[in-house]
């Protein structure tokens, strides 16, 4: 038996009210219990994520749904996998990099996934400590290689990435490789790559700079290639894999052999080696002081260089006044470039 229509309407009204009230109550509880949830989720998304291709826009985390509905997130139109090639023992360096990337402004309409990459773990302590890092951060990629300065690790990295994500629906457009003494500004990188072709693309700082030599290649500080290049590396033959020499120059040779030296973008002067007035060296085409629209700074070999660089890019701007520390004292003695 169907209830009369007025009774049905009342029933429907009551059910709807109940659902809405439950939802609002849940939302309220969520906001009270996790007031910083939205912020935290966004930071995690901006720096790295262990399942990068699972979200189609910038605000799909559960905590972000209310905000997302209100602000209409823009669809992602560039996806980058950026591997920081480092070694297991570089714990402090990884801590600096993670801090720096988590405090950067979030890239807009872009996914830039930063992962720390090393060869097989062969020390007992690293197996334990790195396992803990993986649990806490989920941003480590271990590839099958041995630590050397030749191109074996570069080869292992690009082919591992190509194989790992080959079947994904939302594939990365670009794959990058960088050093652990380089600081990329991820939003600037995403903006630089957004309009670039999705094939035969090679982006970085041309080395040697200011030359007409045939054999220019992208400096090892960091370079990004289109997905087809990573795929090509993963399926290429032994002769190229065994090409000996300085890894980044070798990489340039691979690209030439692949016939993919087409869409080449040198990012001078927005990618450069660190320099400040206290250094005895001269400024040149690959080394100069910080610039505001930087894509990447390289040769951050010690804590002071990291500190000056991050200070220049306003990494400490978010520091709130508190009884717990003296902000003015923390900032007043900083060197200004
Ligand atoms: C790792 O690389 C070595 C040397 O190339 C190879 O013999 C071995 O089978 C590889 N291991 C895996 C798990 O792929
Ligand atoms: C840092 O912040 C200051 C003050 O808001 C601003 O003038 C400057 O352009 C910022 N620097 C960079 C590199 O964005």
Automatic annotation (TrEMBL):
Domain of life: Eukaryota
Transmembrane segments annotated in the record for this chain: 12-33
Xref: Gene3D superfamilies: 3.90.550.50
GO molecular function: hexosyltransferase activity
Cofactor(s) essential for the protein: Mn(2+)
Main localisation: Golgi
Keyword entries, A-Z: Glycosyltransferase, Golgi apparatus, Manganese, Membrane, Signal-anchor, Transferase, Transmembrane, Transmembrane helix
Similarity section: Belongs to the glycosyltransferase 31 family.
Protein name per Swiss-Prot or TrEMBL: Hexosyltransferase
Organism: Eragrostis curvula
Classification of source organism: Eukaryota, Viridiplantae, Streptophyta, Embryophyta, Tracheophyta
